[in-house]
Write a structure and sequence with these properties.
The chain is of the alpha+beta class and 102 residues long. The chain contains two helices and four strands, in the order ααββββ.
Length: 102
């Protein structure tokens, strides 16, 4: 991972994404068509996992991944998640995926 700085706006977009998915009401308008489709298909599993973790307590930028995505560790009241997120020039979330936290 490169240590370049985070894309402006990714931390706010990631927080909105996590909170909206955890609530079961993702804002598909903020996502690329491919991400919206994938999120819709995976929503029951994503919502269950994120709601179990609870509210976000802090977020830490870790660096830039090999495909140019910003990588974050996100701490929740009940655990952690690890995210990769890419924004388009217009602020749309092009891609985002989560893995188990650190």
């Amino acid at each position: 991972m490169s240590s370049r700085s985070a894309n402006p706006g990714t931390v706010a977009a990631l927080r909105r994404l996590i909170e909206s998915v955890a609530s079961g009401r993702p804002n598909y308008g903020e996502m690329s068509a491919d991400l919206a489709e994938a999120t819709h298909k995976q929503l029951p599993r994503l919502q269950s996992g994120l709601s179990e973790l609870g509210p976000i307590t802090s977020m830490e930028f870790l660096g830039v991944g090999a495909q140019g995505q910003d990588v974050y560790s996100v701490w929740h009241q009940g655990g952690a998640s690890h995210w990769h997120i890419t924004l388009g020039n217009d602020g749309t979330i092009i891609s985002a995926f989560v893995t188990p936290g650190p």
